[in-house]
Amino acid sequence: MSSTVASKPLEQRASRKNRSPRNKWTPERIIFTTLNTSFLVLLAALMLYPLLNTLAISLNDGMDAVRGGIGIWPRVFSLKNYEVVFNMDSIYQAFIMSVLKTVVVVATNLVFTSMLAYALSRKEFIFRRPITLIFVLTLYFDAGLIPNYLLIKDLGMLNSFQAYWVPVIISAFNLIILRTYMKSIPEEITESARIDGAGEFRTWWQIIMPLCKPVLAVVGLFVAVGSWNAWLDTLLYNSGDPALTTLQYELQKLLASSMNAGANSGNSAANAAAVGAGGQLTTPIALRSAITMVAAIPILLVYPFLQKHFVSGLMIGSVKG
Amino acid sequence: MTDAPVNLVTATGLEPADEPASSSRAPRRKPRTRAAKPPKEPKRKITWDRIKAQRVLLLMAVPLLMYQILFKYVPVYGWAIAFQDYKPGRGSIWNQEWVGFENFVDLFTGVNGERFRRVVVNTLGQSILTLVVGTVGAIVLALLLNEVKNLPFKRIMQNITYMPHFLSWVIVASLASVALSLPSSGGFINQGLMNLGLVDEPILFLTEPNHFWGIVAGTSLWKELGWNTILYLAAITAIDPSLYEAAEVDGAGRWRKMWNITLPGIRPTIVVLLIINSGWILSTNFELPYFLGNGLISETAETIDVFVLRYGYQLGNYSLAVVAGIFKTVVAIILVGSANMAAKRLNQETLV
Question: Is a pLDDT exceeding 60 seen at residue A97?
Answer without folding.
Answer: yes
